Amino acid sequence: MYNSKISENKLVSPFLLFFLIHSSQTGITVLKYQRAIVQGAGYDAWLSVFVVGLSTNIIFFMMLYIMKQSTAGDILSLHKDLFGKFFGGALNLLMACYFSIAGMSVLYSYIDALQVWVFNGIASWEYALVLCALIFYLVAGGFRVITGVAFWGLVIPVFLLLSFFYLIQYLEVSYLLPPFKYGLKEHYISAKESVPLYLGFETALLYFPFLKNRKKASKWGHFALFFTTILYVAITLVTFMFFTQGKMQHLIWPTLTMIKIIQFSFLERFEFIFIFTWLLVIIPVICIYLWSAVRAIKFTIPKIKPTYILLFLLALYLYTNSFLIDLYYTQLIGKTVKYTGTIFVYGYIPLIFFISFIRNFIKTQKKA
Predict the structure, then answer these.
(1) pLDDT in tens, 31-79
(2) What CA–CA distances, in Å, run from 238 to 138, 232, 234, 306, 339?
(3) Where does the chain have alpha helices with state H?
(4) pTM of the model
(5) pLDDT digits (tens, 9 = 90+) for 108-123
(6) In sequence order, what are the residues at sequence separation of 6 or more whose Cβ sits closer than 8 angstroms to the Cβ of residue 176?
(7) Which of 8, 24, 80, 186 has the CB geometry, 3.0–4.6 Å to 182, for a possible disulfide?
(8) Among 274, 198, 206, CA closest to 236
(9) What is the band of 3 on the pLDDT scale with cuts at 50, 70, 90?
(10) In angstroms, rounded to a whole number, what is the distance separating the alpha carbons of residues 33 and 193?
């Protein structure tokens, strides 16, 4: 059962879980995932995106069960309950490494987009320095501040979705025909490439104790996952009907390439507005990942001050964006997050769920 010792003034309302989960899933990947998923099932890949999205609801159900079995309502305490202080602490630190790299990947990719589409004459470290200062201010403010950023990070950029209605006049439904012509092997490849789209919701394993009335909060988590799924399927279908499959395979930023066609009499480069507004979307993702990493390290090594942990991680972010800027490191960071995230969500969480279920079953049998 939950036994949270978190003070009331640090808790947030249960409905805000919707914004936290959706914001943690809507990162920079949305701007360039289409090219990867068509490598498998072609333009039937939207089905793979839909199925992967639905599967996150099953994983979230497992996460809720896992957190109910821990002493403090999060996976950090459950690790120590199951594996002891040493091995449980080691697992917590491994999680912190994963969250740190995931946040780094989002920042790294966004700076790459800024240099490609907006100001290619500004060095990466200059972008990183400004953004890291902003991230430090937000994460140091605590979980309630991050939740507020996640809320506005969804509400304010909503108008960007309206830009896709402008593209309707250019869509060609015949690009999707004939449907359902690929087998399970091809759909598996597309599903595997779709997983990074949905990563981020696993951070709820750490911040769930900060929610009031967690039983009511769980439904908002499922709503958020379903909303994200519908959004990504819609963007996928619009992209597939905008570009031919042959052209899609040569585009690095398909979403931004579509947006580039939008022009107004008073604004010629709409993609500039889109990219800068997208900062409000990616900032919550980075903050949630970083906050989760800091919390995991602080829980495992209580003597270290959270501020020092945060400064250390941001220093690594700044170093990465200053010196590791070759294409090799771009691909390496992306692959690391994709594979570790897939293993964590679809391998480790079900494993912990199974262990927790067996443990709870044995306890129940002993009481009986």
Answers:
(1) 889 999 998 888 999 999 999 999 999 999 999 999 998 888 899 999 9
(2) 34, 10, 6, 43, 27
(3) 16-25, 34-41, 45-68, 75-117, 124-140, 143-155, 159-166, 184-198, 204-207, 214-242, 245-248, 254-259, 270-277, 279-300, 306-323, 327-343, 349-367
(4) 0.93
(5) 999 998 888 888 788 8
(6) 43, 237, 240, 241
(7) 186
(8) 198
(9) very low
(10) 8
Report helix, strand or coil for 11: coil
Domain 8-336 fold: Amino acid/polyamine transporter I (1.20.1740)
State how far the Cα of 217 lies from the Cα of 214, in Å rounded to an integer. Answer: 5
* Residue 265: φ, ψ to 5°: -65, -30
Helix, coil or strand: residue 50 = helix
Q: Distance (Å, rounded) from C-alpha 118 to C-alpha 97?
A: 31
* Phi–psi pair at 134, nearest 5 degrees: -65, -45
- Cis omega (within 30 of 0) on the bond before 178? yes
- Of 236, 201, 179, which is closest to residue 24 (Cα–Cα)? 201
- Quick one: tokens of 312? 């250390």
What are the φ and ψ backbone dihedral angles of 74, each rounded to 5 degrees? -140, 170
In a 13 Å sphere around the CA of 211, the CA atoms on its Cβ side amount to 27
The pLDDT of residue 169: 87
According to the model, what pLDDT value does residue 331 have? 86
In angstroms, the CA 256 to CA 275 distance is 8
Q: In whole angstroms, what is the distance from residue 254 CA to residue 261 CA?
A: 12
| Cβ burial, residue 202 (10 Å; 0-12/13-18/19+) | buried
Residue 355's pLDDT band, with cuts at 50, 70 and 90, is very high
